[in-house]
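User: Sequence in, structure out. Go.
Assistant: Echoing your sequence, followed by the structure tokens.
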Amino acid sequence: MPDPLLACRFLDFNLPSPLVLASGIIGTSPALMARAARAGAGMVTAKSCSLRPREGHPNPTALDWGGGLINAIGLTNPGAAAEVEVLRATRRLLQPLGVPLIASIFAGTVEEFRQVARIIQQAGPDLLEVNISCPNVSDEFGTPFAALPDSAAAVTGAVRQEVTCPVAVKLAPNVPNIARIAAAVVEAGADAITAVNTMPGMVIDAAAGRPVLSNRVGGISGPALKPIALRCVYEIRRAVAVPIIGVGGVSTGRDAAEMLMAGATVVGVGSAVCYRGVSAFEEIGRELVALMKQYGYPSVEAIRGVCHR
């Protein structure tokens, strides 16, 4: 069990730790998500699902390029109907551990978001994360929903009408004004914000003279993303009062402390699981406790938002 010093609240949940398994890492099966919880995650997020199954992109789809990870998995998932059964089984494993389950959804149109949310609600997740970084296929240019306040709010409002559980909207870092978008989704009904998704990038193999990933472009995560994520969380906290799941480059307890200081309520852990294994939750938690004791922070609440005081 995590150190009692890490106990905290998020919305109406009493969490054993502020560390959250981020979506897309090992949130693919009940056994893996329960393993993350037993390793010290205070909440776990399932991999994002869509209305219909997706195979994703062909290999190669992921690479450790030295400064972090880049991936273009392609949002592989079994579809919403099958995901309901995965989530139900996961809930049964998590409930005795006192760890809430976050479901995650994405879609290409506002109406599809509505449909996926309606189906996934049947699984009874504790929180629904709405990934709006995917392209809006109804838009002439395929602009991601996360790029503009109006489109972000439209998705949020549609999902909010379909579910009774709290809704967290996952924002993208590559936008002109993330604070405005955060304010728009909160006004439309978001109960929380997840910040941020990966940053688009490319890695080229100089010997081959071509991009490494089969999709050419992928999402940058890991250490390279941390300064961007910290800035985004800081600006979002200045704009809205709802809880924030701060995600991006958290690999150590010091990273987690920095994310909390920037204004995050809890801290997502993703790429660190690739680097340190599932034990990353226990190790990061232990490092965070040591830092809190070193600098005299008696609780997670005491360290939250220090940069804003």
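User: And one key feature?
Assistant: Residues 280-295 form the longest helix (16 residues).
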